[in-house]
Amino acid sequence: MSIVFEESNRMFLLQAKDTCYAMQVSESGYLCHVYWGKKVRRLHPEEIVRKISRSMSPSTDGRNLAFSLDNIPLEYPSYGNSDFRNPAFQVQFYDGSTVAVPKYKSHRIYPGKPALSGLPATYVENSEEADSLEIELSDDTAGLRIILLYTAFRDRNVITRSARFQNNGSRKIKILRALSMSVDLPHDRYDMLQLSGAWARERHIYKRALVPGMQSVESRRGASSHQQNPFLALMSKDAGEKSGEIYAVNLVYSGNFFAGAEVDQFATTRFFMGINPFDFSWILGSGEAFQAPEAVLVYSFEGLGGMSRTFHSLYRERLCRGKFRDRARPVLINNWEATYFDFNSEKIMRLVQTASEQGIELFVLDDGWFGNRNDDTTSLGDWTVNLRKIPEGLSGLAKKVIRSGLRFGIWMEPEMVSRDSELYRAHPDWCLHVEGRERTESRNQLVLDLSRQDVCNYLENMITGLLTGAPVSYVKWDMNRNLTEVGSSLLPHERQRETAHRYLLGLYGLLEKIINKFPNLLFEGCAGGGGRFDPGMLYYMPQIWTSDDTDAVERLKIQYGTSLVYPASAMGAHVSAVPNHQVGRMTPLATRCRASLSGDFGFELDLNRLSKSELREIKNEIDFYKKIRELVQFGILYRLRSPFQGDMAAWMYVSDDQKLAYVSCFSVLSVPNAPIDFLRLDGLNPDREYTVTSTGKIYGGDELMNVGFPLPVAEGDFQSWDWLLTAFSN
After folding, report:
1. In contact, 700 and 670? CB cutoff 8 Å
2. Closest Cα partner for 89 from 145, 133, 51?
């Protein structure tokens, strides 16, 4: 077993590949944190969990005044009985009090990993992959029971955590805060790294030194958001891409979250993540339970690169599911930036025919095919085909596309409704709203109340009918606004603050039913681009539209930042027209293609406006991508140059056997009289010889990693180069 309980010192020891995680039950029953880091053979918890008498730190044990929760490293802390730091949870009892004192009661260790009721989570395919630990904490006075669930993956540097609350008493308990994890680290000598941004510039990398007090990121938008990603990492001061310690957490959740690090008066750091307690509460009746989402904890002593590769393999293999988890994704074309709302079946088929000639494999019909949808003011919710645009119907158009050699996909936004729609006129109470308050619109739309089972049932039936009525093989599931007036007409007043979480539970339940009904469909997530790029959505949809910004230069930072946590197989990346529709930038076609080759390759432009030479170039790029797409989508990523640290970006993908590698390099702005530059590669076999397929030149793996690859001089802005390396034996 990779999890043991040492009776002699009441210590839990979890071993996950090269990672060790330890806790101890104190004499008075509190669960203390001992260690999280590189695997060690032996621990002395009495030297780590030290009891020191400190002024102004009250004691919970009159017999031992040195024991204060104010300065003890804790595993799942509460508030109100001597720990003044940020609590992992808070509840309110029938008498209005909020002091909870849960102590260790029992534990259970078993092979495998359980599912979380109603929530996405990582999984195992056999019980030998991981071991799990359940620790029961109990506040017998209040009838509160908390089950802390830990899973240690035996061959991955991954430990997952979650918490389940149970009311074993006779009176209601209100949960005010229920974070998924909290861990007290022994010092504050860390930099905090986060992925932040905005619409069209998601997941940029920001790093700052920890200081005393609270530093945090959060979303209050009802989605994980464009602005903040539910990821946070603490880095040792010497950590970089290839070396140094990283402590990282990612929340498997798609809604409001709260994550941060609090440095206390003694320079220790409390690291935490979970559902945002802002505007949240949950009432537990007698005998009821509440499950918090899963947090994925990754420790790396090989810098950010080691952290990323751990996340990538875990998410590709044990978070994503279904037929397309391990399959190469098709090269697609989406008509959105080619036509916007202005299209008919003739225009679509001209685009499809040209796409087929280039070797594109999938056509995606985007917004505007339903109801009276000629702009974004109407018809969301009315998911019947617009026969004025598509007189042969959706099935007829799909069959024509298929006869042209492409598969057929559609865009949908099922969670939304337009005021100007038959659905809204029939059911105005089906949207999120608060009686007596104005219903705020964004993109001229409102949000359907997925906390209501009748709404979810309607959507399930509507989507089922649509997808069985036409030969669809791909669905782009969009969500183009955040939640406002977060209230539900079916919930009583005391449960209104449950609405946002119940919305997510309704969405997850709906998605589970749809993907089980249609296992052969490829689903791509989208939320105004990358507004819900999180592990929760990857559990249902193995790829996500990375950003609505299709500019190749902007995508360097977006995709580089995204790659810190999420694999290339999850990133939708398309070539678009110039001037770019978001920023107006003119970039070479080769650079646009190479940026898009670093994910799930596709196109979002009118091919029929391109020259013959441009079409030949596109066909060549598609042919090349088909040769390397499994390497890109499922290979091992090594980041070589950061666009956040200069005017160049570079990364490479290496096959598991180190026989094949693909390198991409981008120069943003050219430099006059530029110095000679070498790009050092990574992940190769130092004892092998590698041939550059475009030139036939041979390099040793050790030479490429230690000396580097000579870079051309950029002749103009926004230039790019790529190389395919093939190993051979002497």
Report:
1. no
2. 145
Please answer whether residues 91 and 167 qualify as being in contact, where contact means their C-beta atoms are separated by less than 8 angstroms: no
Radius of gyration of the chain (CA): 27
| Longest CA–CA separation in the chain, Å | 86
The answer to whether the CB of 619 falls within 8 A of the CB of 663 is no
DSSP per residue, 34-45: EEEEE--S---H
Which of 652, 523, 644, 548 is CA-nearest to residue 597? 652
Strand, helix or coil for residue 418? coil
Rounded to whole angstroms, how far apart are CA atoms 474 and 406? 12
Q: In percent, how much of the chain has pLDDT > 90?
A: 93
User: Which amino acid would we find at residue 604?
Assistant: E
The residue from 382, 548, 549, 600 that is catalytic is 548
Task: Give the span between the Cα atoms of 452 and 488, in whole angstroms.
Answer: 8
62 pLDDT band, cuts 50/70/90, is low
At how many degrees (to 10) do helices 393-403 and 345-358 cross? 20
- In angstroms, the CA 358 to CA 31 distance is 61
Token reading at 72: 């003890």
pLDDT tens-digit map of 282-325: 999 999 999 999 999 999 999 999 999 999 999 999 999 999 99
Both tokens assigned to 79: 């508030």
Active site includes 548? Answer: yes
Answer yes or no: is pLDDT of 730 > 70. Answer: no
CB 69 within 8 A of CB 31: no
For the entire predicted model, the pTM comes to 0.97
**Using one digit for the tens of pLDDT, what is the confidence trace for 254-284?**
999 999 999 999 999 999 999 999 999 999 9
Q: Which of 478, 551, 600, 722 is catalytic?
A: 478
Annotated catalytic residue 478? yes
